[in-house]
Write a structure and sequence with these properties.
Structural class: alpha/beta
Bound molecules: ligand LQZ7MJT6
Distance between the termini: 36 Å
């Protein structure tokens, strides 16, 4: 017996084996959907879908805009698995719980992880509705010692001290930029640095100014722990932020952000995001270039 937030090394395999017994799909690509971005699984063919509450060992989503469903299916012939809803630290999950699915994906045979999120922009040139290809991240909780890799290292997954430079795959970023050009959407596509903060409150003006001075382009409350765990176990990583709001950096600014507005912007860009992810997965497939 162990507490609900403690994970035993066998737990990942138990969940992976259960999923393998329930679906014939054997995904090579996993997609984690950010707030309001769950539609990324809508184009999957031959779907097998599991509410998180049915999956042994899975945490539950508690945030509006995160359906709490794991969907398997084919995207342009490539088998994928998609998390319609992720887990955040501020929901009260331990970091090992928030990243639990990533190691399960590894055991399922996934080779590439695509992460998406809703984020607020700090870069002055960004507009609401822009899509930011994540070039790198600052993991604030991680820098402060809140790291999903804390505790005994499981050598089966990766090394004790994994490097994190180059964590967002250069070829996938380059290809995504090229695909955006071909899709005619480059005018609202950026490439930049994402910063994870703990949330759940949005930033104060002083915090926003600090992040801006640190070179952060967009800020959110997720993603970095998943990416750290994915990279640790050798997954190739690609990430997208949808800019849902401009972070308030001036005391004269009377606007303030809220979660409903964040979800609204997801709807605005759903088609473009879906097309970009689909084309990227297709490109990986035709280049036999998943890993
Ligand atoms: O899951 P993501 O990172 O997309 O969710 C963002 C950050 C907060 O959870 C929420 C704030 O609106 O959206």
């Amino acid at each position: 017996m162990h507490s609900k937030d403690q994970i035993c090394p066998d737990d990942y395999q138990k969940t992976a084996s259960w999923l393998q017994s329930q679906t014939h799909h054997r995904p090579k690509v996993a997609i984690i959907c950010g707030s309001g971005l769950g539609m990324l699984a809508d184009d999957f063919k031959c779907q097998d879908s599991f509410p998180y509450s049915d999956i042994p060992g899975f945490p539950q989503s508690t945030v509006q805009g995160h359906a709490g469903r794991l969907v398997f299916g084919e995207l342009k012939g490539k088998t994928c698995v998609c998390m319609q809803g992720r887990f955040h630290m501020y929901e009260g999950h331990s970091l090992s719980k928030t990243t639990f699915p990533v190691r399960v994906f590894k055991l399922l045979g996934v080779e590439t992880l695509i992460v998406t999120n809703a984020a607020g922009s700090l870069a002055d040139s960004y507009q609401v509705g822009d899509i930011m290809i994540i070039k790198d991240h600052i993991n604030f909780p991680g820098l402060a010692g809140l790291n999903p890799l804390n505790g005994p290292n499981d050598d089966k997954f990766g090394p004790r001290f994994p490097p994190m430079s180059g964590v967002y795959d250069r070829d996938l970023r380059k290809m995504a930029l090229e695909l955006c050009k071909r899709m005619g959407v480059s005018q609202f596509v950026q490439e930049g640095v994402y910063c994870m903060v703990g949330g759940p409150n949005f930033e104060t003006v002083a915090e926003a100014r600090l992040l801006h001075r640190l070179g952060v382009d967009a800020v959110g409350m997720s993603t970095a722990p998943e990416v750290v765990v994915a990279s640790h176990c050798g997954l190739r990583v690609f990430g997208l932020s949808l800019i849902t709001n401009k972070v308030v950096k001036s005391y004269d600014d009377t606007e303030s952000v809220n979660h409903d507005a964040v979800l609204e912007v997801g709807k605005l860009r759903s088609q473009t995001l879906q097309s970009l992810v689909t084309e990227l997965v297709h490109w990986m497939d035709i280049n036999n270039n998943t890993a």
